[in-house]
């Protein structure tokens, strides 16, 4: 029987091998069907449709006409779009840096076994479970000229005049960034705590025996051990920051004078408020290309450094 | 085994593409469907889907009672009521419904979103459904009916409206040495009173937000209603608001924000932010429809609420008070458009009941003459003021307003002179108007 199998021609042997592979992995294929279906139906199909719309003047209500690259040409001279790209860049860089760096020492601090660690962990994670709209509305009231923050700062003698956190073009974008960081801090803290939980305790013991203090341990043990988590956090924070919408919608509406309007908000406004789906799609495609390019570049650099 | 590889794949396919998918969801259909007016009025059972905007909270008994009475009077007709939380969701949900071919039969709209649907012929002109459209028009207050007339055709049945009024804090007036029984009657008096209130009490004189609530005032009201500048040229193709009068008026606003006699919330806040500042007694005057009194009563202490008083909106060069309106439109995809029109007209007759819960202006002339509207200052200002909708009835009205608001903010924050801001706004309007949709 074995001799007979060896005598089979090569194509037949290859087909048999392929069939056996499919048979052996059939459960895997079957289990992947729902996920593939969901991604195909709710991610890839809309994304491809978006690409298609970007070459049309689709308004959602009447049949679309093919306009070639006209929408992309219009983007070149659209100063508001350029401003939103700049704002997206500022928000993304600030949010990514703050969300990647700030939770790191806090995670190390909690991991060391400080008193009430569960309490701190819960309190710091709490903003994540509060609906974004609810927390943003609360922040809007606190950041108002007559709001709690200005009252507090005035009472402490830190400011003489109320700061226009939301209506001053210089402050508005930083207020949005602050609320995003406050809300998402707990997610990144958890990622780092999970990373630290898998770090061998011997490393900390060895560092301690070698006489390393907390700062030296942090930079020589914690940061290298969490490199994978840091890369993951960077990518997640980057993509999430580029998609920022709810906080801007509630806090500033993109104003004043477009000072806090990012590209995601501008796309929504263009598509769903102005009904210019073709133009909005062109912006989305440009944004996608930017995000993809930057994420791939970042991952490649991170991979090289490894 | 490189642990980064799976992460990269997930990001490239899921994360980044989900970004775009989330930003611009594809509606997927390049056209609409139509029911046809003659498909209405069949003898079989009729089901109507009826959308309102934000009336569930507090007004459910009124809506359900009115629907029940209609169903009792029209055997075989059932009405399914759907309430949408706000008007932005209304337009996006209606857009999705039209794309999907399953529209409601009667939709609560505003003049802010009506032109988009009228321009794309996705809602019925009333004259296609009513045998005598002139007779229908004659039933309604002209200013409210005209807000639904686009290109010579009426596309909406007015539901209820509101007129901007002056709501002020009598205590702050007294503290400033002003007579609370003589509130400002025009905009020069408003500016003078605001300066005095700020000088004497330290709080701002008034809030004038720039959002899209017309009866709270917005850029179109400031330009057309207060300064008397026409928004568009007579042919409707170019901006016409950058007049010397409008520049002078906007300069007053910029000075007010800079010097503190106009509340800074005006620059970037919404209508409810303005109401909140009044409730906190941080400002003395707001220009809102009397409907806000219900919110003020619910959100202030009784002794604070007693300080508030309502007066006629200060007279502007435009001549009429700025108004806001809720309307009913009939989508073309309605399977029973004539029955839908009948229901919409019926519902506009029920607004006296609504007005008794919150002071709103009924659309029907006959209802506005009801003695109830002479019973209190807040109802009197509704029916005794001439109302006008100053915003352009153009499909790109949202985009035009965003451009105007941005330039107003630049002027109010001192980043541009009032003239430069209005000139830049006019240039942007001309670009939008010439591009069309």
Descriptive notes:
- Chain B: InterPro entries: Bact_solute-bd_prot1, SBP.
- Chain A has 306 residues and is mainly alpha-helical.
- Helices cover 76% and strands 0% of the residues of chain A.
- In chain A, helix 4 (70-76) packs across helix 16.
- Chain B has 20 helices and 13 strands.
- Chain B has helices at residues 4-23, 56-73, 87-100, 114-119, 133-138, 142-146, 170-175, 187-201, 219-226, 244-259, 265-268, 271-279, 292-299, 302-305, 337-348, 351-355, 365-368, 377-384, 397-412, 418-435, and strands at 46-53, 77-84, 106-109, 149-150, 153-154, 157-163, 165-169, 204-207, 283-288, 308-312, 321-329, 361-362, 387-388.
- In chain B, strands 1, 2, 3, 6, 11, 12 and 13 form a seven-stranded mixed sheet that branches. A four-stranded mixed sheet of chain B has the order 8-9-7-10.
- Chain B is globular.
- Mean pLDDT of chain B is 86; it is low at 1-35.
- At the A-B interface, helix 3, helix 13, helix 15 and helix 16 of A face helix 1, helix 3, helix 11, helix 12 and helix 19 of B.
SSE order and pairing:
The complex is a heterodimer of chains A (306) and B (437).
Chain A: H1 2-6, H2 10-24, H3 26-53, H4 70-76, H5 79-101, H6 103-111, H7 117-129, H8 132-143, H9 148-155, H10 169-197, H11 201-209, H12 214-225, H13 227-242, H14 246-251, H15 263-273, H16 277-305
Chain B: H1 4-23, E1 46-53, H2 56-73, E2 77-84, H3 87-100, E3 106-109, H4 114-119, H5 133-138, H6 142-146, E4 149-150, E5 153-154, E6 157-163, E7 165-169, H7 170-175, H8 187-201, E8 204-207, H9 219-226, H10 244-259, H11 265-268, H12 271-279, E9 283-288, H13 292-299, H14 302-305, E10 308-312, E11 321-329, H15 337-348, H16 351-355, E12 361-362, H17 365-368, H18 377-384, E13 387-388, H19 397-412, H20 418-435
Helix pairs in contact in B: 19-20
